[in-house]
Amino acid sequence: xxxxxxxxxVALAAIVSLIGxxxxxxxxxxxxxxxxxxxxxxxxxxxxxxxxxxxxxxxWRPDQKVRVFFYRxxxxxxxxxxxxxxxxxxxxxxxxxxxxxxxxxxxVQVRYYGRGGIEPVAPDSTVRxxxxxxxxxxxxxECGPVxxxxxxxxxxxAFVPSKSRCFNGKMERAVLAYRKLNQLGRSARAGSRIxxxxxxxxxxxxxxRPELGDHVEAPLSRQVMVFARGKKPYAIFPIASGAPATPTxxxxxxxxxxxxxxxxxxxxxxxxxxxxxxxxxYKSVPDYPASHGxxxxxxxxxxxxxxLTKIGQPIYLFGxxxxxxxxxxxxxxxxxPAAFD
Length: 341
What we know:
Layout: H1 6-25, E1 32-33, E2 36-38, E3 44-46, E4 50-58, E5 65-72, E6 75-83, E7 85-86, E8 92-99, E9 106-112, E10 124-125, E11 129-134, H2 145-156, H3 169-181, H4 192-199, E12 214-219, E13 224-229, E14 232-238, E15 251-254, E16 257-262, E17 268-274, E18 277-282, E19 295-298, H5 302-308, E20 314-318, H6 329-332
Parallel strand pairs: 3-11, 12-20, 18-19
Antiparallel strand pairs: 1-4, 2-4, 4-8, 5-6, 5-9, 7-8, 9-10, 9-11, 12-13, 13-14, 15-20, 16-17, 17-18
């Protein structure tokens, strides 16, 4: 074989260079990525429901991936790089699932960043697809993951239902405390509006006297009792304070005596903070101030409350127990619309 002349080699190199330059400057093939959302109804997904984001990408190329972004209230939640599987034509498909754990306006957006090489494909992106969140009414005896999530949210805000997947009496009292604290009607009903608020973690108690350290606060206008360490509340219970004729004393005191069991007056596991004023369980704990000045608690809650109170521990009592507030049907003499939520 005759050797190629120097001129021939130069010419060949020039041709190869020209072909490479044309390939490098060739416009990439347009791509199109699509996304749809499954698992919603009427534009909403149920709380703790599974939402599927799935779609297609064309043209398909080996080893393609799309990045799927999830948002809540316009803020990024997380993203996931998802492989694209070849479809029946010149296109591919992808699929990813997420669980809806919080209220808000959720959205998904998918981006394809393009592919280089001998068959370049241009980047593309979808618009955001949105959905809301729906909430059920929870009833006593109901069990399941939504009830368990509701219980965990109450726990995070210092309300103390039992560690259960079922809506029991202890959870009813925690709901009552939440509603009383937030002036939402003095009942234990967990309607969809209440469930949404609790899942949102709204309605937390703000400690008034953090300088007292590990202490108790009783905002009588809300008819609840709060155990707190500094600024952090850790246990909130519903109470009934003193009636108008025998109001609960206000001020800051310390527990000086504890009396286990029942006494002759039917007071159960009493913790006294000044003279005859005490926190104690009682057979009747109405949704309004009704005691002889003590802080009445439910019998079922009191052993735990008695365990939490310590000799020398401060208690701060404040507020107007007889002030009417929105949702207080007894004070207004009207049906309470909040009680039906």
